[in-house]
Automatic annotation (TrEMBL):
The keyword Nuclease does not apply. It comes from the Bacteria. The lineage of its organism: Bacteria, Pseudomonadati, Bacteroidota, Cytophagia, Cytophagales. This is DNA-binding response regulator. Residues 168-233 form the HTH luxR-type domain. Keywords: DNA-binding, Phosphoprotein. It comes from Pseudochryseolinea flava. CDD domains: REC_NarL-like (cd17535). The keyword DNA-binding applies. Residues 30-146 form the Response regulatory domain. The modification 4-aspartylphosphate is found at residue 81. GO terms for molecular function: DNA binding. Pfam families: GerE, Response_reg.
């Protein structure tokens, strides 16, 4: 559904974008580590606490601790192991979506199956990181998501490209030249700052166009936006 963008929702999204940039600059990003292996949580904690943009690092080792943390703490980013004891990461994602919490989720998995990745993307995660890719990839995804709302490595982009038809078949929409350029910039993984520089506009303006483009195409997230672009030959 394309429809006219709601001006209030656009303003709210711009406000959130500006707050995220300030958080990075001031070192006030709160991260929740969700993994049933204490050793892995401790390892990530020791690495993340050296990053200047991180303020608080919280931990959850099971579904109950996860739900309590989400309900009682202010969290900006969740690093979610999708195999959490007896709980499914997809179930936990559903709980977040139902509460309509403004938090970014990076799914961390030791599995690289196409079906799993597609299901995670459709569930609304902002990034998928494979454990074998190491801490550098996790850090890269956190920084990108705070600056550009999502992060997809080349592996994830290829999965979206090869399975674009599996997303909702949104009817083609006529795009202006500016909108087409914006779509290509997003698809190539440029941050909002990079898009602003490429298109010679301010960062809040670039973020406004990004939000309006998603609403115009009737897609729900960046993964669906990429699928639309590949399905319609824009990329």
């Amino acid at each position: 559904m394309s429809g006219k963008p709601n001006s209030l929702s656009v303003r709210n999204s711009i406000f959130i974008f500006v707050i995220r940039r300030i958080q990075i600059q001031m070192g006030t990003v709160n991260i929740l580590l969700v993994d049933d292996e204490a050793l892995l949580r401790e390892g990530l904690r020791s690495l993340l606490k050296t990053e200047t943009f991180v303020r608080n690092i919280y931990e959850a080792g099971n579904a109950e601790e996860f739900k309590k943390a989400v309900e009682t703490l202010h969290i900006d980013i969740i690093l979610l192991d999708i195999r959490l004891g007896g709980s499914s990461g997809l179930e936990l994602l559903s709980a977040i979506n139902k509460k309509n919490i403004n938090v970014k989720v990076i799914a961390v998995t030791g599995l690289e199956g196409v079906e799993l990745v597609i299901n995670l993307l459709k569930a609304g995660v902002q990034g998928v990181v494979f454990k074998l890719d190491g801490y550098g990839e996790i850090l890269k995804s956190i920084r990108a998501i705070m600056d550009a709302n999502s992060y997809f490595s080349d592996k994830i982009v290829r999965i979206i490209q090869n399975n674009a038809s599996r997303w909702d078949n949104v009817p083609p929409v006529t795009l202006s030249n500016l909108e087409s350029e914006m779509l290509k910039c997003i698809a190539h993984g440029l941050t909002t700052k990079a898009i602003a520089g490429e298109m010679k506009m301010t960062e809040p303006t670039a973020e406004t166009y990004r939000i309006r483009l998603i609403k115009k195409l009737g897609v729900t997230n960046t993964a669906a936006l990429l699928a639309y672009a590949y399905r319609n030959g824009i990329l």
